[in-house]
Write a structure and sequence with these properties.
The protein is mainly α and 141 residues long. It has 5 helices and 4 strands. The strands form 2 sheets. Strands 1-2 form a two-stranded antiparallel sheet. Strands 3-4 form a two-stranded parallel ribbon. α5 links the parallel β3 and β4. The protein is elongated and about 50 Å long.
Length: 141
């Protein structure tokens, strides 16, 4: 998909205002989220705190882009939102909400999620820390 120049410039300007070291474009935001979702599907290679950090770096800024009033004035933004929504659905299908983590207004929906499976390191870390009474066991890829 090719985005209008003005849409891209507005997107980059917002990214800069957000303090991005390397300004995001619609393409780069989608690509980074797609890459992280793919890494997760293939067995995330680290532990839950690292995943939370990666989600904060990749998915957190996307939320700001999704709700920005200026970006929402562009027709192109609907395509961006559709593509992010599809990636979000993929992430939801390979993760679940931890039943005991309280939702907090300051937290985004992805911050309460645990992967259904991951690398041995990921699974071992979480399986050692999860309450056995919940009957949760993280699988490995």
């Amino acid at each position: 998909m090719k985005y209008e120049r003005e849409y891209g410039e507005t997107f980059i300007a917002l990214s800069k205002r957000m303090g991005a070291e390397y300004p995001e474009t619609p393409y780069s935001a989608i690509e980074e989220w797609a890459n992280l979702v793919e890494q997760i599907k293939n067995g995330y290679q680290s532990i839950q705190p690292e995943l939370e950090h990666d989600l904060e770096l990749v998915r957190e800024p996307i939320e700001t882009f999704l709700v920005d009033p200026q970006l929402n004035q562009f027709i192109d933004h609907q395509e961006f939102k559709r593509r992010i929504e599809n990636l979000d659905k993929e992430f939801l299908s390979i993760s679940f909400e931890h039943p005991e983590w309280k939702k907090n207004e300051d937290f985004r929906w992805w911050s309460n999620r645990i992967l259904k499976y991951g690398s041995k390191e990921y699974a071992d870390f979480l399986n050692a820390h999860l309450d056995k009474n919940l009957g949760i066991l993280i699988g490995t890829v």
